[in-house]
Amino acid sequence: MDKLNRCRRWGLATAYFLLAGTGVARAEFPEKPITLLVPFAAGGPSDKIARELAESLRKRLDKTVIVENLGGAGGTLGAAKVATASPDGYTLLIHHIGFATAPTLYRKLPYKGIDDFAYLGLINEAPSTLIGRNSLPAKNFAELRRWIAADPTKVNLAHAGVGSASQLCGLMIQSALKAEMTSVPYKGTGPAMTDLMGGTVDLMCEQATNAVPQIEGGKVRAFAVTSKDRMKHPVLASLPTLAESGLPDFSVTVWHGLYAPKNTPGPVLAKLNEALRGALKDPELIKRQEALGITVVSDARVEPAAHKKFVEAEVARWAKVIQAAGAYAD
After folding, report:
1. Low-confidence stretches of the chain (pLDDT beneath 50)
2. Which family does it belong to (predicted)?
3. Domains (ranges, CATH) in the chain?
């Protein structure tokens, strides 16, 4: 009997270690709260999106998702923190288009680049709007284009700092117009928008998320949207696209993606991707995003492989723009 009991105990121990090797015997992920890191200051577009997504993820993972902000250096400080975090799925990064531009924009990154991350899926896409001070002599884009062409260097183009979506969009517009305007950097969207409304600067290319309230309130003049197609949002529906306004094939959207540290276990990534896909089908999340002029992604890019392929294409696309403009960060 003792020999039989020893055999049974040996068999159970062997089974345990075999199962542990496959991850079956481990406690099911997640066991504790998850941190969703936003590499920008609180209150901005990325922060708003992160907080809405966090609540939807919480419902699907049945664990608290804590939003943490770590701004600085165009989002690279926050990205570096996630890149070097424990690859266990408990520290995630939400990042916008700057994730793809940083490898070209910054000569020295505090992490290796986009291969330092595991891809979980694309979240959304938001157009930007080309807006100007109310006292501009131009009433529409055609008039604005002629006004800029008269003397581009006298046109003050505001943006929210190096690596910001507003700077990148502004670079693309200048490239399309073949007009080098005077760049006016700010430490964030808030002060840039304040000066635009006050008439201190002339133009700004800003995400619809932030621009809609100012357009609706008549505090700035809107000339066009940067999306491929016109927007259905009630405030933006009447605005033409830049493509139909004489800049063929112009299309710039500010997208957000979700990432984990490289080497995060496959089963954990699968669980997180499943939760993300579920969140992006949440009617409440979709409704709130659409109210801000944002489109929730519903195509293949919600899957990790397609998400990574999309980002790689964006890296190549923006590298050309940044290199042509010589707009490198220190």
Report:
1. 1, 4-5, 7-25
2. Belongs to the UPF0065 (bug) family.
3. 34-126+254-325 (3.40.190.150), 127-225 (3.40.190.10)
